[in-house]
Each structure stands twice: as structure tokens, then as C-alpha cells.
Design goal:
Structural class: mainly alpha
CATH topology of the largest domain: Cytochrome Bc1 Complex, Chain D, domain 2
Number of strands: 2
Order of helices and strands: HHEHEHHHHHHHH
CATH architecture of the largest domain: Orthogonal Bundle
Shape: globular
Largest sheet: 2 strands, antiparallel
Number of helices: 11
Length: 252
């Protein structure tokens, strides 16, 4: 394995350079640089990781009955090829990384959690990352419980998603018109990229309908603090919010 040596190289740059070497080595058919059981050496507290994971559960579920939300479900994450969860619409960035051989092992997961966009340019994941090493190790120890090994640990119910606004069943049952939603979406697309890209503003492409509706009503009621979004949501009625949710759920 080549030795990385460069004067003035930052720790982050060195870690990414090492990761590039690992990826290139694997693409060339080299022998694995990490043993199959390397993940078991992770020093992390799974119980504390469950607490840290609260930062992730707005987009991801894990456990028995977990479903795809704004992000894919995380059961069976370790050893999984990137962009391989059935039924989830991935960004072009993560699809490109998958075509280049990205597999979620401990090293890559740690780098992704620290800074998603440094590992995968163009990812829709707008999370800024976990900067503390112990936080990352704890979360990964928690997620490790839901992969193939150890298989004897029973799965827990999917992580609960608590919404900041309680909506009536009638509002949640509204079926929006995606064509009308596309017409209304022109103002949204002045900030949010239709292709799902993220340039400092979170993606809303392929959001689950309920998540979109709840978020817009939270802005409408000023329970979320962004003044521009409060103004935009305040102009919309229930049917218009449902239409936008229906459009962005299927937007490509």
C-alpha cells in the first residue's frame, strides 16, 4: 500500500487521501485492506449511539419495519453496496460513487458521517456531519446492531419520528394533484434545486408526502423559524400544500 506523505497536509485531507487509495486499490482488484471482521473492532457505545442517532431519524429509519423516508432505511448497512436499497431514489452523486465501487464499510461510513459531501460530491444528504469521533463511533456501533452480524440481537421497532405539529386526519388524507403542484413549484425552485442537488439549501425532491406536508404546516404556524419559509407557507392553503407534496414526491 502506498505511503501518503505530504508536508502541511491536514488530518481531513490525509483521511480522504487514504480513502482514495483504498477505493483505487479495490477497483484494481487488490486484496482487501481491511479484514472482514474489522467492524467488530469499533470502539463505540451502541446505547449512546441510539441517542446521537436522533439527529438522523428525521430522514432515516432503522429496525423492524423500517421504511425509506427522505433517506434510505439503514438495516443491513454494513457491507452494503452504495445506492442499493430497493425503491429508494438516489442522487446522481451517490449513484456515481456506487458505479465506482463504493461499499459501506467502517472506514467509508466514518468518513461519510464526518462530512457527507467530502466523500460523495453531489449527494442530496444535507446533514453537516458529526465532527466528534466518539459520536460517529457510537452511532456506527448502534447501526451495527441492525446488520448481519451480530444476527442474534433482536431488532427494535423503527425509530419514532416526532413531528412538531399535529395535523388532522383530513389534512393528512388530502391527495394532491402533482400537475398543479408542478405549476406551484416555480417559487420553490428559486432556492431548491429540482434535480435534488444541495448547494447549501436542503433538497426537497423525493420527500415523503407526510413529511413535506407536516414541514409546510409547521412553517405556516410559525413553529419552524425560517422567515422566508414562514411567508411562503403562509400563502398556501391545505390543497396547495398537498399538491406540492405530491409533485416533489415524484420529481426527478
Amino acid at each position: 500500500m502506498p505511503v501518503i506523505k505530504r508536508v502541511g497536509m491536514t488530518l481531513q485531507t490525509a483521511r480522504l487521501a487514504l480513502l482514495a487509495v483504498v477505493l483505487a486499490w479495490g477497483a484494481l482488484g487488490g486484496a482487501p485492506l481491511f479484514a472482514a471482521g474489522h467492524e467488530a473492532e469499533l470502539i463505540g457505545d451502541a446505547e449512546r449511539g441510539e441517542v446521537v442517532f436522533r439527529k438522523c431519524k428525521g430522514c432515516h429509519q432503522v429496525g423492524q419495519g423500517a421504511k425509506n423516508r427522505a433517506g434510505p432505511k439503514l438495516n443491513g448497512l454494513f457491507g452494503r453496496k452504495a445506492a442499493s436499497v430497493e425503491g429508494f431514489y438516489y442522487s446522481k452523486g451517490i449513484m456515481r460513487a456506487a458505479s465506482e465501487g463504493l461499499v459501506w464499510d467502517l472506514v467509508r461510513l466514518d468518513a461519510y458521517l464526518e462530512n457527507p459531501k467530502a466523500l460523495v460530491s453531489g449527494t442530496r444528504m444535507s446533514f453537516r456531519g458529526l465532527k466528534k469521533l466518539q459520536d460517529r463511533h457510537d452511532v456506527l456501533a448502534y447501526l451495527r446492531l441492525y446488520s448481519d452480524d451480530p444476527a442474534n440481537i433482536p431488532e427494535a421497532p423503527p425509530t419514532a419520528v416526532l413531528h412538531e405539529v399535529k395535523l388532522t386526519p383530513e389534512i393528512l388524507a388530502l391527495i394532491g394533484d402533482p400537475e398543479y403542484g408542478e405549476y406551484l413549484s416555480s417559487e420553490c425552485s428559486t432556492c431548491h434545486l429540482r434535480d435534488g442537488g444541495d448547494q447549501g439549501i436542503p433538497s426537497i425532491t423525493r420527500w415523503p408526502v407526510e413529511d413535506f406536508v407536516v414541514a409546510m404546516h409547521a412553517y405556516k404556524r410559525k413553529l419552524r423559524s425560517h422567515p422566508v419559509m414562514q411567508m411562503m407557507a403562509g400563502r398556501l392553503d391545505d390543497e396547495e400544500i398537498a399538491a406540492l407534496a405530491a409533485y416533489f414526491k415524484e420529481a426527478k
